[in-house]
Structures are given as C-alpha cells and as structure tokens.
Amino acid sequence: MAESTSERELSRLSPDEVALELMKFIAVTTGYGRGTPTTGFGSKGPRSSEEYADSLIELYERCRSLIRKEPK
C-alpha cells in the first residue's frame, strides 16, 4: 500500500522538526499560552509577549522530549 504524501514528508523530518510541527499544531488548535480569559474568578487577563514566548518554548521542549523518547 502506498504511503500518503504527508507520511513521506514526515519520514524525512528530523525529530526536532517533528516536535516543532507538533508544537505548532497544539498551539494553533488550542490557543496554548495565550492566556485567554476564562469564565469566573480564574481570569488572569492577557499575557505579555515574553510570557507567551516562554510558554511556547516550554511546549516545544515537552514535544521534543516525547518525540525523542524510545518506544517501549
């Protein structure tokens, strides 16, 4: 059975590039790190650009550690 184009493209990426793509997907689909206000008393308001960048770097490191983890 033939591989799809996206599977072939992913197989050529380094683990760091795969982690970056995963981080971008999570950040875009969930709004990760944006600090969006929530209903009730938990709202912290908008975050600074430095805090947002730090949260994205933390997410990338988490994705990177998952990608590099040896399968069991």
What does this protein look like?
There is one protein chain. The chain has 72 residues and is an all-alpha fold. Helix content is 61%, strand content 0%. It is built from three helices and no strands. Helix 2 packs across helix 3. The protein is elongated and about 40 Å long. The model has no long low-confidence stretch (mean pLDDT 79).
Give the topology.
Blueprint: H1 5-12, H2 15-30, H3 49-68
Helix pairs in contact: 2-3
Structure at a glance:
By secondary structure, the chain is mostly helical. The protein has three helices and no strands. The chain starts with a helix and ends with a helix.
Number of domains: 1
Per the principal axes of the C-alpha atoms, what is the gross shape? Answer: elongated
Helix-strand topology string: HHH
DSSP strand tally: 0
Q: Which parts are unreliable, with pLDDT below 50 for 5 consecutive residues or more?
A: none
Beta percentage is under 5%
SSE class: mainly alpha
Number of helices, counting only DSSP H or I runs of 4 residues or more: 3
List keywords for this structure.
mainly alpha, single chain, 72 residues
